[in-house]
Amino acid sequence: MIGYAVSRPFALSVRGQRKTLKAAPSLETPTADTVYISAQWEIDMLQQALTEAWPQANKAELLRIISSATLVRTAGFPVLLGAGAYADPEHQSPPQCLVLQLRSLKAAQPFREHFRLLVINGFGSNLGDTMIGLTAFRQVLSVLCAELPAVSVDLMLGWHKDDRLERLVRNVEGIDTVLTQGLSLAEMSRYQGIFDTSRLLLLPRYGKMPMVDWYLWWFGIEPSQVAAADKRNQVAIPAEADRAVADCLTPKAGPRILVNPRASVLLRSMPESALRRLIEHILSAWPEADVLLTHQMNIHSPRLQFVSKITPTVDHLAALLTQVDGLIGVDTYTQHLADATSTPSVTMMASMELEVYPYYPLGESLLLPGASQLSGWGKAKVAPSDWAAASSHYEMAWEAVDFDAVLSALRRMMAKKQASYRAYPIRFHPEPGPERKLSTRQAVIEGMELDIPIRQREDPLAQLLHQTVIGLGKQVLARGDTVVYLGAGAGAAALPLARMVGGQGRLVAFEPRRELYQLLCANLARAGIRHAEAHFAMPEGEGYAVREIANLSMDDEYLPLSMGNSEQLEPIVCWPLDARKIEACRLLTVCSPLPLLSVLQGAGNTIRRCQPVIVAGVLYWRDVSRLTEFLAGFGYHVRTLEVSDSALPESGIQYAILAAEPPGGTAHIN
Q1: Is 202:52 a contact under the CB 8 Å cutoff?
Q2: Is residue 503 pLDDT above 50, yes or no?
Q3: Which SUPFAM superfamilies does the entry mention (predicted)?
Q4: Among candidate residues 199, 231, 263, the one where a domain is terminated
């Protein structure tokens, strides 16, 4: 994990993305909203872009790199989880350390009902690592769900050339949001914990143990505690992709053999000369077989079909693997996909031990002759300059491959599947429904359906306030009345009040929390309430002004009577209710977290002119006298609903809801 700050405003625009960076007031003391966590490739591309923009500038004056150690010491930074939380993960991380960390996290925040976690760098920058990482993540998720009341996990991927990684992870249960750019330090405050897989290839034990076991270990789970069957991959294949591939394949009676010679790097790829020998050998030694080749090359046969155009996405590639009888490939994504589709496969390993993928029952790995003696041994990739020096040695090694042995291995795997066909089904992972991605959930209040934020906690104080407001509304409102609701939230009480006054009445609502305001408008529209006006404003002050309030995100946990749940600030326009010049108002409700007294002060002329019944709450008991004194100045008779905490009965009265009756007492409120 790397952070950075820039001294000049800059727009990083590359690979179909654009990110606008704020300039830090000082590189030595940047603010939380000007420090950024680097996503995959982000810092490298930024350094190059800054050099191109200001070639003569001193790089240290343009950019400050901030280490992981500095970031995690920042106040409010999420807790590191997994083996990466330890300075020496190989020797310090205990077995099942994730369980211990989650219990500590929960103990530190005992009242939190939902925990939000982030995986920085996702599960790596290529498809193969990501698929194996997802397999491990399913086990990690089960631990998270067992130890935390509720949890969601976001992935921070990066600046990739296409959306293949995003498509692979987007429908996995437990993964909520997929990010393709780094977050600011201020935005990181929404998370309670993080896993960090940055610089994946350099992390301890990577490549030194079975890959799925490595992911389990890095995320804090003892690999030996997970059954081998649970270490196999899963896949989701959309029906439309399956149909599209089937329609493009040439009908054949014999076996279809898919050949994939390319990995994400040349080190693990098959050179064209060896590929040509392999194709010719299959066509001559296996007369009944047809070959499907993932990449174009200058070779022709009626039994050879190029499939690159019919596999434009990872979904189509998965569908293709379900419709072939065997795979011959290199150490890349297709072999891991073949495990999920239960497709017999043979993998030529050029740089890694055969034991890194031991859990694929229909997959056999063969070592490139002399691979352990070559310069790339034990590495997933090498620098371009190193490859230029080593490529000829690898070509010689590929020339020594016995393709008879390769075909024999594939026939063994195919015979194994044929002998117990039902034991090797396609391993589908369920695709969660679209509701998983929503930020709201449905509630029914007074017989009315409305959406409320999905992370909104149940709050007895808010429920009591809403019940009080609705109850008073039933006593004092008639059809045709005007009701004003200041701090309406998503409309839990405002919508029932609007229904009470009917189409000839009026609801005037103010809500300063942007996402709740948007949800309030949506709920009003869905309920068919046209006799309402909703204002995105803070109803206080003497004129028009702008100030900043804490941002509230519906994706994060919050209490309905709280202003925000983030350290980020956003502007809000402030203007008093009196500026609206309402001619009539029967019920005026002022709801926390709005500043009750200053909001009522901004409604003084409205109170004096309309003399509405007023409900204000929830407020601390210590503030009751000030509001009572203010309302008494208008001749109001104030009644107090005293509220104590049932969990702390000895603490006495702590909160109050005020109901104020105008002079003359004509409302007769109870």
Answers
A1: no
A2: yes
A3: S-adenosyl-L-methionine-dependent methyltransferases, UDP-Glycosyltransferase/glycogen phosphorylase
A4: 231
What's the pLDDT tens digit per position in 101-150?
A: 999 999 999 989 999 999 999 998 889 999 999 999 999 999 999 999 99
Give the HSE-up count for residue 532: Cα atoms under 13 Å, Cβ half-sphere.
Answer: 29
Q: Quote the pLDDT of residue 647.
A: 58
Structure tokens at 189: 């405050």
**Coil, helix or strand at residue 571:** strand
Rounded to the nearest integer, the mean pLDDT of the chain is 92
**Cβ-Cβ contacts under 8 Å for 461 (sequence gap 6 or more):** 561, 618, 643, 655
Number of domains into which the chain is organized: 3
Q: Place 436 in a pLDDT band, splitting at 50, 70 and 90.
A: very low
CA distance 469 to 617: 10
For residues 640 and 360, what is the distance between their CA atoms, to the nearest angstrom?
A: 69
For residue 346, list its beta bridge partners: 328, 364
Residue 667 domain-assigned (yes or no)? no
Residue 434: the pLDDT is: 46
State the CATH number of the domain containing residue 608: 3.40.50.150
- The C-alpha atoms of residue 537 and residue 548 are separated, in whole angstroms, by 11
- List the structure tokens of 225: 């505690």
Q: Would you say 302 and 311 are in contact if contact means Cβ atoms under 8 Å apart? A: no
Exposed / middle / buried, residue 421 (Cβ in 10 Å: 0-12, 13-18, 19+): exposed
Structural contact between residues 270 and 371, judged by C-beta atoms closer than 8 angstroms: no
pTM to 2 decimal places? 0.85
Tell whether 226 and 319 lie within a shared domain: no
* Residue ranges making up the domain that contains 55: 3-231
Give yes or no: residues 224 and 245 share one domain.
no
Lowest mean pLDDT among 28-32, 40-44, 464-468, 566-570: 566-570
Task: Answer yes or no: do 394 and 458 share one domain.
Answer: no
* CA–CA dist 246, 240 (Å, integer): 10
